[in-house]
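Structural prep section.
Before we set up the soaks we want a predicted structure of the protein with zinc ion in place, mainly to decide which crystallisation condition to try first. Input record follows.
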Amino acid sequence: MAPSTVLAGARVVLPTGIVTDGRVIVEGTRIATASPADAEVIDVRGHWLVPGFVDVHNHGGGGASFSGTADEILTAVRTHRLHGTTTLVASTVTDDMDFLVKQAGLLSELAEQGDLAGIHFEGPFISPCRKGAHSEELLRDPDPEEVRRLIDAGRGRTRMVTLAAELPGGIDSVRLLTEHGVIAAVGHTDATYEQTVQAIDAGATVATHLFNAMPPLGHRSPGPVAALLADERVTVELINDGTHLHPAALELAFRHAGAGRVAFITDAMDAAGIGDGRYMLGPLEVEVSDGVARLVQGGSIAGSTLTLDRAFKRAVTVDRLPVPDVVAALSANPARLLGLADRVGSLEPGKDADLVLLDEDFDVKGVMRRGAWVVGPQLP
Ligand SMILES: [Zn+2]
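Run finished without errors. Recording the tokens verbatim:
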């Protein structure tokens, strides 16, 4: 590849809107403002250029999970990269505390190498009433001492902890996380509206897969959903796979939170990028059928088989959301949440050259990460 590349003629989605016949200049690993005379020009007319996707909640893919070995973790990372995710936070599921501490050491090493953007602990501090696909016998109350163990185990790479703040120690744990610069995410929770407001006031800033694994919106007991949607400080995660959310629920969240406070996530498990079959989610067995992952025991939905390119296509073609709003929910908003907005999340000069090339049907035709093509470009 030439030292400098110009991608010319695309519909480029910038934070300010869509530029038709736009161009993105890549120099080394970054996006540049001007191109030298010897730059290679690639004609990408008829395509969209959008920032690389940022997934803050993802358990695995390609037959491997973030609870596995280093090789398995990298397999999952590569699988999602092929689908446009250039920044990825590895999520664990509820497991034995000693196992989580050990796994955090491994994940933090891969984060230091630049393969991961951090660690998200989903559980064990969650509600047995809303456990979803988490092992009930391994759940525990959010004791701040144990929360601190997970913060420390990530050696500066623990980015988010999902917890049920209504449990004993919950609010103190939210405060502790916030003090350490770790995102406190409200999820797998049975909290009331009032308890959720208290958690947000204590520092919680994320709704873990809003609507899923929490009490539904009721007119006399509005629950976590109303509190999380209403508060400007909260970013709401949404799993846009057509299974986890009715399209009307997605629309309601998008209208209410506005495009600036939504982060599309995959919550993907091992089967993402592969297909149906038997898999493990942490210690639990999962059957994937027609792309829907369910626990073998009990039938609870067990993560998704989603990739963010499919979430993008669905949001535009089925949900009919405006492309810039979808781009914000897939890139800028999660990047800001992670404190990485100076590096990734938009196609602006000086940032990492992380981008996705999509054709008119919103299918991936190229993925570039830090200036290197991971996929394609596949051009007619
Ligand atoms: Zn999850």
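Observations: Residues 53-337 form a domain with the TIM Barrel fold (CATH 3.20.20.140).
Flagged for discussion at group meeting.
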